[in-house]
Amino acid sequence: MTAVPVPHRVVARRPETADTVTLRFEPVGRALPDFLPGQFAMVHSFGRGEIPVSVSSVQATGGLAHTVRSVGAVSEGLCAARVGDVVGIRGPYGTSWRAEQARGRDVVIVAGGIGFAPLRPLILGVLAEPAAHGQVNVLIGARTPSDLIARAEVASWATAFTGVTVDQPEPDWRGDVGVVTQLLGRARFEPETTTAFVCGPEPMIRATARELAHRGVPREHIQVSLERNMRCATGHCGHCQLGGLLVCRAGPVVDWASAEPLLSVREL
Amino acid sequence: MPPSIALRMNHALPPEYRERLLRVGREATFAQGARLFEEGGHANRFWIVRSGTVALDMHVPGRRPPVVETLGIGDLVGWSWLYEPFVWQLGAVAVTPLQAYELDAVAVRLMCLDDPGFGRAVEHWVGRVLAHRLNAARARLVDLYGIYETKEER
Amino acid sequence: MVEEYGAASDRSRDHGSDRASEQEDDMTATAASAVLDRDGLDALVGALVAQGRTVVGPTVRDGAIVLAELTTADALPYGWGVELDAGRYRLVPREDGAAFAHSAGPQSWKSYLHPARERLWSADRTPEGQVTFTEHTAEPPSYAFLGVRPCDLRAIAIQDRVLTGGRYEDSGYGGRRRGALLIAAECTEPGATCFCVSAGGGPAADPGYDLALTEVIDDEGHRFLARAGSEEGARLLERVPHRAADPVTEATARTSVDAARDRMGRALPATDLRALLSGNPEAARWNDVAERCLTCGNCTMVCPTCFCTTTEEVTDLTGDHTERWQRWDSCFDLDFSYLHGGPVRRSARSRYRQWLTHKLATWHDQFDTSGCVGCGRCIAWCPVGIDITEEVAALEAERETETD
Predict the structure, then answer these.
(1) Quick check: ipTM above 0.90?
(2) Over the stretch C155-180, which tens digit does the pLDDT of each residue have?
(3) What is the domain range of residue C121?
């Protein structure tokens, strides 16, 4: 079957930062299959087009939601959506965070910028089962304090360590200033028995994953979320290629052992 | 130094040199808001954070001092003590109540001269900290979280 | 007809030994080889048209052999051959009047099976804000492809794998493919840019055709050895004037095709292409070819396996009706890899490297086969004459000097 969008109504709209909005959706009629954290949907803005957006909340954790940053015509259209508007969504596509790999291990989750959104449902899932995991650490980096998403929610999380840092502080910022990898020194984890999940701009993923590997986290236990241009999301259009991977199919979640050789080649 | 801090030092000094270093150190406490040093001052001490947070700042007339970077547990505070002219380049303030190992820079520099092996290890350690901080600063300069607008004509 | 095409629809998904044994069963069940003369071929076309099929085959137009709809076999390019080289394609007249003695035309069958523009779905919005999405399902045309070269037959199988062999099916392609009858024309006249043998194929047709023709022209006359490859092919053959195949025609056909194996114009080096290309992203040769490559994308347009597409939103003036269209795209296009404000592959070097590495190496990682069938079109139709067999040989030579 051709992948056709399924109508969804915006039931809640929360501006997160100056250019980022979280929209929560309910299906108008037919529902989509359950999404898993890390997967994405193709979200359609009427008359503008479709973009891939990771889920920031899944049906199981409060309803399907996507956090969208306004960077182009389609995302701008989605960020302008009001409660009651109908948009088309198709999915779920792609690989999910392999949360089961972290069971019984320490967990380190590193989120950079808008990369926080795809990690949020994973974090909620991990925190919902404290007995199934070792020490859980959440490290968040953003450009400025105004770009931090869900600050109150993050502050409420019962983790072994939560670190939030910004590149550029604002006058009333009392928190950390610096790159997010700087916080690793304060996190509580045994690298050899840790599973890490990293999402954010690609250079940030490279620096963070390398640092984690340098500290002794096994490369197969560092999961990263990749991003490439996507048109179809079904493995037919060829746009999302990264070497031998089709990111819509073998990703977006990939382990660092597989991703490292691909991300280190310029313009691959 | 308790293993918990040693392990968290972002760039470790080999254990035998670490112990020797700390023998010329003492435990210091700073209240929240206390300044550790000012830009332009003599860099004759340095610290390794045991608990709390230090902010490195710059004084800019008309602006609240912008924080350049914050440092936490296990981090080395200050490197200007190792290189001429031994003058602080930034200011430092305790953002929270702070406990740190405080070390005498003059004593440590003399130990480096006395024992070239120790001196090399200390310089290597500080060099690595500097390299890491430089890379971090460069990453922030690139403004990865910002929106990149290509300005080229198509 | 669709029900009877059970074998064909399986063919569109299966590859390798399963399909071959299915075809062997089909072949033992059908008639032995037959011979058609030119009138018989015309009758074949007539029979297909009468069945309601759109017959597509090679024709002469604008100085090239171009695929077009045929109503009679007279439109075939009898007496036309081609002169090929890197960046060169010329029609040349042939004295023998052959219809299928040409190769590397500027199109391939993907122009019909995977068309350049296709509507996927449309959406309508009411004043109250209700939105409905409607899939576009047109009745697929019923094609008969006359004169499918063995390389193109393999190319169709490769596109089958890409577009219908994964988790999601491109249903437009699937419908057109299942309804298509394939009449192969084996190769007796390879071109100077051909290298199907070293690309894992050959001038003989692999199983997957409904009917295979081998053109034989000698003192006995101008005729075609015809072999059925499916029940439908056999039934079709029964319906047109033919005679049983004689040993001379069969032998001549077989030797001509065998001889063609040794007359390939070019060859890919016999090396592990996956390791060579995926393993050398920083080879100096990429800089070298980048200085020549115009990133015009001709190669991707003429290549029978290139499948990349993009999607576009097309609205009307009311703003309440929108359509999603799919059209061909090329990895040479700057926008192809657009991400966060600019292309990932900005340089010509990176885009050429992407195309060639995908075609010969990473296609294996993605789809378990090579992407290249050795048809040579990219070599002939490159305006600056870049020859991928030469590029691969140069990459290998560079690697050899490095390991010394």
Answers:
(1) yes
(2) 999 999 999 999 999 999 999 999 99
(3) 3-261
